[in-house]
Design a protein that fits this description.
The complex is a heterodimer of chains A (about 1000) and B (about 160). Chain A has about 1000 residues and is α/β, with parallel strands linked by helices. Chain A is built from 38 helices and 31 strands. In chain B, α1 (about 20-30) links the parallel β1 (about 10-15) and β2 (about 35-40). The chains are: A alpha/beta (about 1000), B alpha+beta (about 160). At the A-B interface, α24, α27, α30, α37 and β31 of A face β1, α1, β2, α2 and α5 of B. β31 (about 990-995) of chain A pairs parallel with β2 of chain B.
């Protein structure tokens, strides 16, 4: 502890990759959120020749799946190379078979896992411990870290201990909360940690490697007479692990001054009530303990670092003698179990012991549900009850099975002097990037500790973002979102009407609004509830017209630097002059190679941000503003109002469990994206009727189905909103006097401009204009959408590109990026076949924009009520999933056929005979089956015969289904290739759409081949 | 190539921005084909870093085909029953002079050139060679004569 401390500002993934790089010769990976950046760091460092402890760059191989990555790790270990991997969630599940092998063969490795939920009723990319719990029986040792600093400190313990003990390690930390939280931490240096390596053990590992010069046979099949004994022979290696880990923890503690043990106790030495937990929640619990201690309460926390092997000895050493009651917190759910895994461990430790404490278990934080200090308070309060509730949940309201503990108001428990700030932004507006930069500035330029966490929704771009920043003189342990900010900045003017941006802002705090209005107009625009809050809480209210300044400076919509500068000016976290210098230094670093002009433009933005802030006087009478409830729009379905709008308003945390009664199986209402009306486009197309040649290419290419041709009768034109232009539909012979109009849904448009770009008219029939100038189209769209009848049968939609666009898209307004290359393909498929389509969708972009609650773009046909039925299973199994659809449907249709054949044999009535025969002939022909199915339905209607009754129960299978598997290249070329190949070879009538962005498969090539490149080839699937 | 080798799988490679009708034809044939069908659709993505912007994704598909980066074709096993070549190359002879220009239009490639110029040049040359080699193999397939071939596999029906 005599050395000068070296601080760095980074996230948990960086910390894990940083340590892992030192100890790895080979890394075999497959990317999966939220672990991907660990591999990306290693890849980048290797490409630039960074050296590991052997003075060599790491060899990184990207495989076709996590199964492949684990197999390659296994092989590399057997060849005598220190090898690591990085994964999470489903990826870890795919590694499990090999993890048994690696453990069984006592091969030293570290798997770094950013723990994430597993897909069940829904996919979640967010954090919990479901994945690592699923690996706890593999024989891997498991080390848990609760913060970015712990990750830096304990990742090394894992690498050191695996070499010495031969037992492989899984080192985990919480996905997103730790993996993506930016913290200022102390970095361990290679020259300090490498001397701790047990060189003898390392050499023995090399000596044990498979090598023809010292040949071995390893991995035999063993029969009943020896398998069991050979398995038990490994016991001594596991018995040795806890002491080896504890010893290395001592050495790391000495190096860093931070005390680590397999189980760390924190709190009052005479505590009677303690919590046992692992992961990032332990930081929040410590904060809560500090708060309670200050009030004289004696409580504690046992935080677990070495989860496997579970060391009873070290556990007993760590417990306070005064212990009476324990609450065990598990970040996972095991439906049907007596309790969750950690709870069961603790119970079984105490089983049969004298004076065993009362032990209750509870669940928290599933899928990154934020766990706040007030939730922890309720856990301690539960322990104080006469009969503490067992099997409880925190952080939600369970009004169905009543397992939740009461939710309490948030209390600020951050240490004195900690400043908290929240920034509301729009995906890709630069807010998040600017905030990361601010943290770095404050972290690097001052002694202050800092923390940043970034919240996104699942829109690919143009979505909601909220940055949560904390700065202080003491280490920041608040591993939860900022709930009581000192400063709030709203970078998107429209948000004041959408979200409760002031929620939790402290009395006397500051609010900065990017306002496109001047002071007086801003006062008019503010909703009543905001006025009241500002006045009652004596908020310092500032505005700046960042949007205008950005445009004037030539920065377009990127207002981030202006707003960042304004933040430094107002918040005073560090002296403003220092902030300006540092911001400018960062600009030179980022944009230096893009030319002086860009640099100067950004310099000007820094200056503008400091100079153009207006402080708005908050009138005292705003305290008396009467808040008006929103009337809501009349035609919004109940589900939209009660569920979708709530989630979109960032109030989804308030929804109780009962909201999902009837939706337990993961079903979500279809077509909800039509109610979002996000209005995120800057420019939208305006139709120039006189130039239009009615080719419908604009509609054909639109990624969001936001521009469509309509055919209107004279009456429909008459009833249309004033100023609705139409042209006679051409050719007149085909359209018989109908009128034609291209209609844009300007609030659903993302403004990409592909429609205008492809317009083949001599004079463009579409011109991009500002959204503001086109708002009168909203009413017109509503009229076209709701009041004008569909006329897709006027022409044959299969005949031409033009005709296809008169059919209703049954995939609309998805959250895909503006200009997405994938979605126009999907849209056309739904227009042609949507009413009899079944879609299996591989996990990836297309499953996210295809169904991210609460936005569902697949919808029902207006006339028939039929539509694509859509489901996502996994990433790797999608072809098989669609194959299952086909087999299942075929089984039902074969039953129908068998019933009909029997009916024909046994003399069914004439009408049935004709219909059944026709259906049987055309069973596998889509059009024939549509026609015949109607006849069958008519023939069996009203009949009481057993045939009719049986067939009517199967009626939904009469029409031939169009069965599809959708996915990207990552699925089709790599992880799902084996299944895809098998399904194709099977001959089953299935259609597969591969939307090839080359993003997965091409990366394979670039990664593998740097820096020694000789080939550049893509796999050929066709 | 892999799926076409089965002989009873419908395969199409498309890029709607390059040929709108070819995608629609492929879609109709694939859906109607009484067996497994595969459509591989070229999809520009925000991760490509299009210099022309995401407002030109359809145009980018067109450029990809013109430059020989991507080919359009359909492999319809049913044609073999009629004594026709099941493989049809739907895209025109590429203008190879545009190949490097196409790569330079996307940051996913140009960034490599900025970071590792020598490596990038070598890679991009070999990418072009590989694209030519592949296109030639498509042309050879399209030129094959099936008039005397006796269908030995049962295709669909």
């Amino acid at each position: 502890m005599t050395k000068q401390k070296k601080f760095t500002t980074c996230d948990g993934n960086y910390a894990a990759a940083y340590i892992s790089y030192m100890f790895s010769e080979v890394a075999c990976i497959y990317p999966i959120t939220p672990s991907s950046t660990m591999a990306e760091y290693v890849d980048e460092w290797a490409a630039f020749g960074k050296k590991n402890m052997f003075g060599r760059p790491v060899r990184l191989a990207e495989m076709q799946s996590e199964g492949g990555a684990a197999g390659a790790v296994h092989g590399a270990l057997q060849s005598g190379a220190l090898t690591s991997t990085f994964t999470a969630s489903q990826g870890l599940l795919l590694m499990i078979p090999n993890m048994y092998k690696i453990a069984g063969e006592l091969l030293p490795t570290v798997f770094h896992v950013s723990a994430r939920a597993l897909a069940g009723h829904a996919l979640s990319i967010f954090g919990d411990h479901s994945d690592i719990y699923a690996a706890r029986q593999t024989g891997f040792a498991m080390i848990a870290s609760g913060s970015v600093q712990e990750e830096m400190d304990l990742a090394g313990v894992a690498h050191l201990a695996t070499i010495k003990s031969r037992v492989p390690f899984l080192a985990f930390f919480d996905g997103f909360r730790t993996s993506h939280e930016v913290q200022k931490i102390e970095a361990i240096q290679m020259e300090d940690i490498v001397p701790l390596v047990d060189q003898e053990a390392l050499q023995e590992f090399r000596n044990r490697a498979l090598n023809p010069e010292n040949p071995k046979t390893r991995g035999t099949a063993q029969n009943p007479e020896i398998f069991f004994q050979a398995k038990e022979a490994s016991n001594r290696f596991y018995d040795a692990v806890p002491d080896i880990v504890a010893d290395y923890m001592d050495q790391i503690s000495e190096l860093t001054g931070r005390k680590y043990r397999p189980f760390n106790y924190y709190g009052d030495p005479e505590a009677e009530n303690i919590i046992i937990a692992m992961g990032s929640v332990t930081e929040t619990i410590r904060e809560t303990i500090d708060y309670l201690s200050a009030q004289g309460k004696k409580v504690g926390l046992l935080s677990i670092h070495l989860f496997r092997p579970f060391s009873a000895k070290h556990f007993a050493e760590a417990l306070p003698k005064s212990l009476k009651r324990i609450a065990v917190l598990d970040r996972a759910k095991e439906p049907g179990a007596v309790g969750e895994p950690l709870y069961l461990d603790i119970r079984s430790y105490f089983y049969g012991k004298e004076n065993a404490p009362v032990i209750v278990g509870g669940r928290y934080g599933l899928g990154s549900k934020d766990t706040t200090p007030s939730q922890i308070l309720s856990v301690y309060e539960n322990l104080e009850m006469n009969e503490p509730k067992a099997g409880f949940t925190i952080g939600i309201v369970d009004d169905v099975t009543f397992k939740s503990l009461p939710l309490k108001p948030e209390i600020d428990m951050t240490p004195k002097g900690t400043k908290q700030a929240k920034f509301y932004g729009l995906g890709s507006d630069g807010t998040v990037g600017a905030n990361k930069n601010s943290i770095k500035i404050i972290g690097d330029a001052t002694e202050k500790y800092c923390q940043g966490y970034f919240q996104y929704d699942s829109k690919k771009s143009g979505g909601f973002t909220c940055s949560h920043l904390r700065f202080g003189d003491k280490q920041i342990r608040s591993t939860y979102l900022v709930t009581t900010p000192d400063f709030v900045a709203c970078h998107v003017p429209a948000y004041i009407h959408l979200y409760d941006v002031l929620k939790g802002l402290k009395k006397g705090g500051s609010f900065l609004l990017n306002s496109i209005w001047d002071e007086e107009e801003t006062k008019k625009q503010l909703p009543g509830h905001m006025k009241k809050y500002l006045a009652e809480n004596e908020i310092n209210f500032y505005i700046i017209n960042g949007t205008q300044l950005g445009e004037d400076l030539g920065l377009g919509t990127r207002t981030n630097t202006i707003m960042q500068s304004a933040f430094f000016k107002i918040s005073g976290v560090i002296p403003y002059s220092i902030a300006v210098d540092e911001m400018k230094k960062a600009i030179v670093k980022t944009y230096g190679n893009k030319g002086e002009q860009i640099v100067n433009m950004n310099f000007a933005a820094v200056d503008a941000g400091g100079k153009n802030i207006t402080k708005v006087e908050v009138p005292i009478e705003w305290k008396n503003v009467v808040i008006q409830g929103s009337n809501g729009e009349g035609d919004r379905p109940d589900y939209i109002i009660k569920v979708v709008d709530v989630i979109n308003g960032q109030r989804g945390d308030d929804l109780p469990v009962s909201t999902f009664t009837g939706y337990e199986d993961g079903t979500f209402e279809m077509g909800t994206s039509a109610y979002e009306k996000r209005g995120i486009a800057v420019h939208v197309p305006e139709w120039q009727a006189e130039n239009c040649i009615q080719c419908n290419q604009c509609a054909y290419v639109c990624p969001h189905a936001a521009i469509r041709p309509f055919l209107l009768t004279g009456q429909e034109v008459e009833n249309a909103p004033e100023g609705t232009e139409v042209r006679a539909a051409t050719p007149a012979k085909t359209f018989g006097g109908l009128n034609f109009r291209i209609q844009v849904s300007v609030l659903d448009c993302t403004g990409c401009g592909n429609c205008a770009d492809v317009c083949p008219s001599k004079e463009k029939a579409l011109i991009m204009k500002s959204l503001g100038s086109q708002l009168s189209e909203v009413e017109r769209w509503n009229y076209m959408d709701k009041k004008v009848s569909l006329k897709e049968k006027v022409v044959d939609k299969f005949q031409s590109v033009k005709n296809s666009q008169f059919a209703q898209p049954l995939f609309e307004f998805s959250g895909a990026c503006a200009g997405c290359g994938e979605t126009p393909y999907i849209k056309l498929i739904t227009q042609l076949y949507g009413e009899r389509m079944m879609i299996a969708n591989a996990t990836g972009c297309s499953s996210i924009y295809g169904g991210s609650a609460p936005a569902t773009p697949y919808c029902k046909h207006k006339d028939s009520g039929h539509g694509p039925t859509w489901a996502n299973s996994l990433f790797e199994d999608n072809a098989e999933y669609s194959f299952g659809f086909a087999e299942g449907v075929q089984a039902q249709r074969e039953r129908i056929a068998a019933i009909m054949e029997e009916a024909l044999k046994n003399g069914a009535p004439a009408a049935m005979k004709v219909a059944f025969s026709e259906w049987l002939v055309g069973i596998n022909n889509a059009n024939a089956s549509i026609v015949a199915s109607e006849k069958v339905k008519a023939a069996i209607a009203g009949s009481n015969s057993s045939y009719a009754r049986e067939i009517s129960k199967l009626a939904q299978y009469l029409v031939k289904k169009s069965i599809w598997a959708f996915g990207g290249d990552g699925w089709a070329y790599d992880i799902g290739y084996g299944g895809l190949d098998h399904v194709m070879a099977s001959g089953q009538d299935i259609n597969i759409l591969v939307m090839d962005t080359e993003v997965y498969s091409l990366l394979v090539q670039l990664r593998n081949l740097l820096p020694q490149v000789n080939v550049f080839v893509k796999k050929t699937l066709a | 190539m892999m799926m076409m080798s089965y002989g009873y799988v419908y395969v199409a490679q498309v890029a709607m921005g390059a040929n709108q009708l070819q995608f629609m034809k492929a879609l109709k044939e694939a859906e109607a084909y009484p067996g497994p069908s595969l459509i591989i659709a070229y999809s520009p993505c925000i991760n490509h870093g299009l210099r022309a912007s995401m407002g030109k994704t359809q145009e980018e598909e067109k450029k990809a085909v013109e430059a020989g980066y991507w080919s359009l074709f359909r492999y319809n096993p049913l044609l073999e029953n009629e004594g026709k070549n099941p493989f049809q190359l739907d895209s025109k002879e590429p203008d190879w002079s545009k190949f490097q220009e196409f790569l330079n239009g996307e940051v996913r490639y140009s960034s490599l050139r900025n970071t590792f110029p020598a490596v990038a040049d070598q890679l991009f040359t070999s990418a072009e060679e590989n694209a030519k080699w592949r296109h030639n193999s498509y042309k050879r397939m399209a030129a094959m004569d099936f008039s005397n071939a006796s269908p030995s596999l049962s295709k669909g029906e």
